Amino acid sequence: MTATLSPEQRLLAACIGQPFGIACLAQPESPRDTRLNWEVAADLASQHGLAPLVYAGLVKLDVAAPMEFHERLRAQSLGALVRSEAWIEPSLAAVLDVLQSHGLAPIVLKGAALAYTAYPEPAQRTFSDIDLLLPEEEVCRASGVLRERGFSLDDRAKAPEHHLAVHYVPDAPVGVELHCHLLPRPHPYAICLEQLRSRSRMARVAGVEARVLAPSDALLVACLHLSYTHRYRWFLLRALTDVLAITASNAKNVDWEGFFETVQRSRASGAVFWPLQLSRRWLDAPIPAWVLSGLAPSTMRRTLVNAVAEPCYLLDDEVPEGSGVLYQLLLELSLYQGCSLGTQVRSVLRCLFPPPEAVGHLSARLTRSRVRYAFHLGRPSRLARGIISLGRLILRLARENRRA
């Protein structure tokens, strides 16, 4: 099944590819496509943190865009450049200098690393927090060093287990997250941090020599961050652009065989396959066909997940009435391909019978009582809706298969 991008999404895909030298096949059939809603396209670029990159691509693509669209992206691009040069880059350099002066060698992760190692210009990769990975025994020491230098600690919100509470740079709206793990725990993947550290390399980041992940490991982290950590919910297009940036900018440096072996060994094939697949389908990311075929799920599972891994659902949040739980179930199940059967069964049960704190639309009276909550989840009408939704999905797939 081929995903159908809207005219606005095709425009963004075409613009995103230009700075990386990718002549995206998804570009609009005509620069004057009357179906294209320029305001929607601008909103989409802003929502996904892609306005600077889209603007750079728009200039290269030479699309006859309305002046309002052009100027809106130009203003956001200039704003991102000012933020990058005035706050982000000095803050990142200061953090690295402080930690390195105390004998600490953090690995710069995610946007802060990719901006300087994978994107044509640092300001084209928007981000708000600086993510650093340190050995578990060094994280508290690093926190103490930063606080001694005037960094404030946000201890109001409960920090996730894989990183400390956010440290804020003095006189700048920039947060620093000190990670001791890559993903929230418990998680089902066997990721060896020591191997990632041993493969890391030195690169010029914000004018400072610092450690970054090897391109193949940066690709693994980008995929896991999008699929497992964010469940495809936040900045989806920017995350898929990260996949494009890593693979296009490091075409000769990605160790695809090592990457494939690491993904298989980590039991993360499902969490990695779909980000790679989506980035290739939507943005023409140069992913080798043998990598995708080797990581691909069974035909039946791939067909079902393909039905939800479409722009109308992932980007526009358009779900057929009554099918929300089914769509979320299929997307959730895709994360655990490669994991044990027990892990996959537990993921299905968590999706069908979520804990009360994960269901925000129910009244406190209902969620406080385990009995009432159990009856609510197990009521026959809910089961019937699920069966009907699955039936509709199967019929839709059958019709599309016949047309194909």
Please outline what is shown here.
This protein has 404 residues and is α/β, with parallel strands linked by helices.
Name its key features:
404 residues; Beta Polymerase, domain 2; 2 domains; seven-stranded mixed beta sheet; 19 helices
- CATH architecture name of the largest domain: 2-Layer Sandwich
Average of the residue pLDDT scores: 87
Helix coverage percent: 55-70%
Counted beta strands: 7
The level-1 CATH class of the largest domain: Alpha Beta
Shape: globular
CATH topology of the largest domain: Beta Polymerase, domain 2
Number of domains: 2
Class by SSE composition? alpha/beta
Please specify the SSE layout and strand pairing.
Blueprint: H1 7-17, H2 38-47, H3 51-61, H4 67-101, E1 107-109, H5 110-117, E2 129-133, H6 136-148, E3 152-153, E4 167-168, E5 175-179, H7 193-199, E6 201-205, E7 208-212, H8 215-229, H9 236-249, H10 256-265, H11 269-283, H12 289-295, H13 299-308, H14 311-314, H15 324-334, H16 341-352, H17 364-368, H18 370-378, H19 380-403
Parallel strand pairs: 1-7, 2-5
Antiparallel strand pairs: 1-2, 3-4, 4-5, 6-7
Helix pairs in contact: 1-2, 1-3, 2-4, 3-4, 8-9, 8-10, 8-11, 9-11, 13-15, 15-16
Task: Describe the protein.
- The mean pLDDT is about 85.
- It contains 19 helices and seven strands.
- A seven-stranded mixed β-sheet has the order 3-4-5-2-1-7-6.
- With about 400 residues, the chain is α/β, with parallel strands linked by helices.
- The protein has two domains: about 5-310, Beta Polymerase, domain 2 (2-Layer Sandwich); about 315-404, no CATH class.
- It is about 55% helix and about 5% strand.
